[in-house]
Amino acid sequence: MESPNLLNNLHDSLFSFSDLKIGDYQLGQISDQFTAFMGSGIVWDIKTVSFVISVILAIVIILLNIKLGKFKALAAGVVTDIVKPSPISDGGPTIARWAEIQRHVESTKEAEWKFAVIEADKLLDDILKKAGYTGDTMGDRLKNVQPGQLQPLNLIWEAHKIRNRLAHETNYFLRHAEAKKAVQFYGRALEELGVL
């Protein structure tokens, strides 16, 4: 029987709490007015305006990110153009050396193909030095090339590895297609550097 008595006491105390006065108003009246305000059109209007502003800001953020992406790509192109060393073109001698390399690689003799690859490597190394790429060896200079400075960098590495095998492995057999490919890779690098 104590349980219904406890509920009656709790009910009575809650009602007496709502009779508590704050200034001229009872707590129950303040609660009723707040509930009416929250359900009114003012709050609904505030929520609607906030939603519209949020959508507009989200669209602006998306557009700025798209523009920023384009700007980053543009800035990256400008930076690589600024950072990229420009070679000192010697004109005739470089073109004459390249023509000789081309004659050797078109020969029917393996020794001449080997000569063409080694000479193409030397020519590119000389141009890289003149262009301001730093390092003690061709390999060091290639390691110091920054991304975006020289596009066919991986192809140059492939050709340079063939050259290193020729220089260090006396029994290395160089196939004609391999020699032509290496010389072609060196030629692409020389073209990009603006000497061919």
From TrEMBL:
<keyword id="KW-0812">Transmembrane</keyword>
<protein>
    <submittedName>
        <fullName>Uncharacterized protein</fullName>
    </submittedName>
</protein>
<keyword id="KW-1133">Transmembrane helix</keyword>
<feature type="transmembrane region" description="Helical">
    <location>
        <begin position="48"/>
        <end position="66"/>
    </location>
</feature>
<keyword id="KW-0472">Membrane</keyword>
